[in-house]
Amino acid sequence: MQILLNGQPVQTKGRTLHALIVEQDIVPETIVAEVNLQLIKQEHWQQYVLHQGDTVELLSFVGGG
Amino acid sequence: MVEENGAAADDALLLGGVRFTNRLLTGTGKFASRDLITPMLAASGSEMITVALRRVDLKAGEQDILRYIPSSVRVLPNTSGARTAAEAVRIAKIAREAGCGDFIKIEVITDIKYLLPDNTETLRATELLAKEGFIVLPYIMPDITISKQLHDAGAAAVMPLGSPIGSNQGLEMKAMIKRIIASSKLPVVVDAGIGKPSQAAEAMELGADAVLVNTAIATSNDPVMAGKAFALAVQAGRLARLAQLAEEKEYAEASSPLTGFLRA
Description:
A: 65 residues; globular; B: alpha/beta; 16% strand
């Protein structure tokens, strides 16, 4: 399935948001996820099923003033 | 002592009902090594530090800055990157969802050369976020009217810039900042452009309730020592303000008696 991940088209085998994050080799504890501009709480990632064409944003906190 | 906005009886600063005994706010940007952030916080005693929200770099892996911030220090997420009120609101909600608490620094910028904030969009974002229970600290172009409007919109403070972000030019906006301090019912936090401890002290002497310093600390050769230097300057400036220093005079006024010995 193809999705838009952080602005880039990505082919994923991950069926759920959690599977996608694991597939991308990201430590889940430190990030925030949005799907189609909806903030998805971490406790729902395992159940959140992705669909073809979804826009996923994975965000984290960085240095800033 | 002079009456101050947002000051408790023991001179703690109150922002959105939260007490701060240290009036130096710091930022996590531009450090050569993130390992310097924790010791800088310890050396300066800063109780609130800014962070920014970005897309995870899928190639670089995890870059979370929060683990360098001790739990005793408040995290102040900013909305940098936002060009509209709607974008700032979106970032604020994400930051709160991520467990950063209710504080948010509104930063809406479209002017890329000088990084000057858009006061109109900032006011809109403040109205929306204050209604949703955020403790809103808006970064603004120094202006009395917008400061009053931000007060009415539910902001917890106003944060006028001293000079452009990262410019180290100090209090270029001094005259306007003085007027805001004189008229604002909200705490005034001078944010951006403060390049030296003397400039931080000057802002506090003028009556600012706090200052926010990032670049000058982070890009110094020794950010831990610089953090301490800024904290001492802020404390000195605050005490000078509370002591109500005498005014400037045009002519000399002798500190020692000139008569009574060699002259009658």
